[in-house]
Amino acid sequence: MTEPATTTLTEPALRTAPKVLLHDHLDGGLRPGTVLELADACGYRLPAGTEPELARWFRDSADSGSLERYLETFAHTVAVMQTPDGLERVARECVLDLAADGVVYAEVRFAPEQHLERGLDLDAVVEHVLEGFRSGESAVEASGAQPIRVRLLLTAMRHAARSREIAELTVRFRDRGVVGFDIAGAEAGYPPSRHLDAFEYMRAANAHFTIHAGEAFGLPSIHEAIAFCGTDRLGHGVRIVDDITVAEDGTATLGLLANYVRDKRIPLELCPSSNVQTGAVDTLERHPFDLLARLRFRVTVNTDNRLMSDTTMSKEMMRLVETFGYGWSDLERFTINAMKSAFLPFDQRLELIDNVIKPGYAVLIG
């Protein structure tokens, strides 16, 4: 009997594979054309006047090697996301773009406190984004394509003082499409423990949260996020590699923190392209993703900011395939890692793994 043929691993084929995305910023994934149209509608001046020029400006500006300079690009996307129409459109297009790339489940995050300049309050900001998600999900289902579920993470800015307020907002909306809380922004000088009251509130409410840690600042940030704050996942967490020593023969020795992260199966929301852009790693070839994967950390593949990194989940996976030689089975494992780590109820995670992810990869593996 002839064995079924394995589908050749190309980017077009990758787009058909079911994917799970845990770390994606709503204000980092706008379509360049949408930024132009929304800016024109509200009278906001952009650094470029055509779609190709603007896309190139975002990509080049993000390629600075500095997290702080990378974050400066968000001033322009946030500026055009201050109205109900703007928020709903961006959220809807986010769902459509992810679905077109084969994403079946995504947790998309944004900071409501940054969208109050035109009179909206925090609750209204969240409601409009959720309405955009619902509209996008309905449009995908109506098209006959593979359905997608998109849930929201609410982010507090670590340099500000509204984290407890945003944590309360998260809990208030947790039965309406918000599944978790996050803090983000420049790590240096703003440790996770600065927001301890917000994390204590989340734990008391039996609510999920992730923390941007170990992207630019290193092991102390990761240690605080876990030991003091009790995070469920690590946003990036790439610098956990600083607690791993690799001998000349390839043998790896894990320090206490790295051992704990692996033993506890704390998910790492790794974003390969973004990690290179912000200087968290020098090159993709030197990214510790492969080392962490071989050591059986719970690694997941993510986009971070699709506009700034000019990327998609398919592109991120293809770059890993080209760099580290992964096959379909590896990508299936990373996808299941992500689904296991999602802030969905267990039965819903299992349903997607058994009924969508495994069957989808079975077709590709042959």
UniProtKB/TrEMBL annotation:
InterPro entries in the cross-refs: A_deaminase, A_deaminase_dom, Ado/ade_deaminase, Metal_Hydrolase
Span of domain Adenosine deaminase: 18-358
The EC number(s) this enzyme carries: 3.5.4.4
Positions of transmembrane segments: none
An individual GO BP term: adenosine catabolic process
Site (Important for catalytic activity): H236
Class in the EC hierarchy, top level: hydrolase
SUPFAM superfamilies for the chain: Metallo-dependent hydrolases
Catalyzed reaction equations: adenosine + H2O + H(+) = inosine + NH4(+); 2'-deoxyadenosine + H2O + H(+) = 2'-deoxyinosine + NH4(+)
Known role: Catalyzes the hydrolytic deamination of adenosine and 2-deoxyadenosine.
HAMAP family in the cross-refs: A_deaminase
Cross-referenced NCBIfam families: aden_deam, PRK09358.1-2
Family statement drawn from the similarity comment of this UniProt entry: Belongs to the metallo-dependent hydrolases superfamily. Adenosine and AMP deaminases family. Adenosine deaminase subfamily.
This protein's name: Adenosine deaminase
Species, as recorded: Rhodococcus ruber BKS 20-38
